[in-house]
Amino acid sequence: MRFILRNFTHFTRTKMPFKQPNRLTQEHANSLIDNVDNFLFDCDGVIWNWPKPIEGAVEFINKLKALNKKCFFITNNSTKTREMVLNLLAKIGITNVTLDDIVCTSWILARYLKSIDFKDKVYVIGSSAIATELDNVSIKHTGIGPNHEQIPDPGKFDYASLIKLDPEVKCVVVAFDHYFNYPKMVIGTSYARRKDCLFIATNDDAQFPTGTSHVIIPGTGSFVNAMKTSIGKNPIILGKPHRTMWEVLEKVHKLDSNRSIIIGDRLDTDIALAANCSLGYSLAVLSGVSDEEMIQDYAKSLESDKLNSDEAKCVPDYYAENLGAFEKLIRNHN
Description:
This protein is of the alpha/beta class. Helices cover 35% and strands 17% of the residues. Residues 6-13 have low confidence and may be disordered.
């Protein structure tokens, strides 16, 4: 897959006008099947709350494929490579998927840097998946993994005297990192404050879906906001709701945005992407981080005299409990 990524990180083409959300009905489901060719799926909280697939997800996607619909999988989860996502899909029974049907932020990061002819080294706050994708395009990197051997006691370490910065580093990437800590903040901030250093975030999701209500798993956005504060500038953000992932799919597969839908559990990333990319439809599922109350709270912005466009973008056209609810409505569709 070859493409040129443009400088579109902060550019949006908003779908208007906004409409009140509707709980998915038989009539809505039939209409979507008739009018949509391209189904874009988020993964976490939509297809699975790993390691368990969400009710009806596998059956729904396989039904769409039987109806000759195109299915794509776009995830902000930077801890996965495209190959890993492909294997996970196959493991739960979703087959007939190619790498070109998958877009993840670790891969987008590597392709973005390659497209701007980046020749230097990247300091990565992130996972081994990013290392794999950067290695695939021969971009040097450092920083991935735990650093407690180098700095065993962060509270007693003399950062100003002992931190040695690599002059080759010209980019700082912030992604999801189980080993995120104060030393990494010091090193990343010190690099990113340089005028010739890029500051990139794979995504800014606040939380990971867990399938439970009592445990909250902070997402990449928690790390990004901490780094923004210390660095003093905003990063280039590659993941949803920004246009990057859609533009890749649109270009490679020649997709018609008017006949496309995104199905996701996050209102501020998945559903907002539909507005930013002028997709024909959006559907929120309640199997991840969002619930009906959140949808209705955002919908109130549509009734305000002073319309908040950022909030309005988070209102889906439709919502359903999960993909299984959609599958039941189209089970007999031929």
